[in-house]
């Protein structure tokens, strides 16, 4: 369904461009003449765009020389008016009559050149790939063009980076590479313009891929006010960031972020409950600036996969199903059997993986976590399998090992594997079968030794039926399938709440929650599971500010849900009174009681606490009935 929607949107982009071309008065056989700048005009053009040109050369040339030098491909940089500024690469990719269009001064605006990647990318302000026959002018139908816009720190479109190639050459990575390069240029523009006087925070889904050019970038002043961000940062935080303050974006206090070590990752949680890894870079000009120290608060044990401090004892506190999952996973993983962990979002799949890593024989080796849903589809293969040496400047100047090779000798955790694009699924299957990786842009096969754990919150069988997931890959990753229960169904929920509170409470706060708060937490349906619980507890502890947590310290939306459940006039889902426990219940009515227990349980969608309230029985009694029925 998603792929069909993407194809429909793509067709709409091409159709809209053709309509604009018709509106400009163009016809398919039109052959415009490219501009021919003299040396003086060319020098003026390069001087006007000196910063953009120098930045692009810093980012593009190392990539082109090491990755695409063996391909017949041409990279062009154009300004915001679609005028070519400079080109790098092989101009022999097509017929000689097109070569003047690759020189400085040539205009690829749709008004003159019809539908093409540069002009259409400017019109839509988005990445575009235009196939051979999608070009409006027949003149351009021997090439395939891909382009991505470049925005400055003010989000003004300042240029377009594009790649042209022969229409008969493979195009699997071209658009993804162009997007990656344009993002690299944007990042460099932000650092170049603002890095001297502002803090720069790099963000990504895990610490393992924080050095990726596709990381988010935020520039902010000592007061925490954001002055610029790249598009990836806006995507990760779920909103435009310019003008916002760090305190309104992250649960962590601003001073905790400002005072964090500049060379070690920091774990952050957004106010929208998204967990990210960050790396802070301080400006040289602000080295002497001091910030108000944050009040000392005991730090919670990190739960990010790949972080230290999680053991098997941390994931289960009396729930037999979780214990069974943990025991089985530990036994089969040591024998090299791949594990697939299923469960709703937030049930603790990543914490289970961290605990497995900590108790395995590979605990001293890396645990590399990959959120397949968080990497742009065009770049999944490149991030997983790596690039040839010399692909990028800075941290990536010597190329990228790729996340799979980073996990060599250790454990690779593929979270949300159901979201992996089909092309990457095919390559991953080959890696798992042959235990060898071939980096993008290379023909060398590199052996890898790793254990694989995957996770999903969506039934993969449905995605197989829809043609979105390969059946052969499913059977390769599904050596042992485990399903972690939702928080609302866990028998150790009370103890789990207590442990999480102890991890996050301030040193002066009571080591127990009062009955009213505990009841509210224990009886909540928790659609966001353990992840939601952790955030609710952290918010309550922060608002209490050293005092014991009270009911009114819980977030307002949480309290609204709680009050709606406990309001006296609330009517039950349906009349369960005939099936409630009674001292007069006899053996003949037991079967009816058990049958109706199952009906109520299903009507309440598996919510044990809610079903127990409807039946007016204790949760322990309901658990016993469900076990007798073979449900739990």
TrEMBL record:
Stored SUPFAM superfamilies: Homeodomain-like, P-loop containing nucleoside triphosphate hydrolases
UniProt entry tagged with the keyword Transcription regulation: yes
InterPro entries in alphabetical order: AAA+_ATPase, AAA_lid_NorR, GAF-like_dom_sf, Homeodomain-like_sf, P-loop_NTPase, PucR_C-HTH_dom, Sigma_54_int, Sigma_54_int_dom_ATP-bd_1
Any coiled-coil regions, as ranges: none
Species annotation: Marinobacter salarius
Pfam families per UniProt: AAA_lid_14 (PF25601), HTH_30 (PF13556), Sigma54_activat (PF00158)
Domain Sigma-54 factor interaction: 315-542
Protein name: Transcriptional regulator of acetoin/glycerol metabolism
Keyword Metal-binding among record annotations: no
Region (Disordered): 565-593
Keywords: ATP-binding, DNA-binding, Nucleotide-binding, Transcription, Transcription regulation
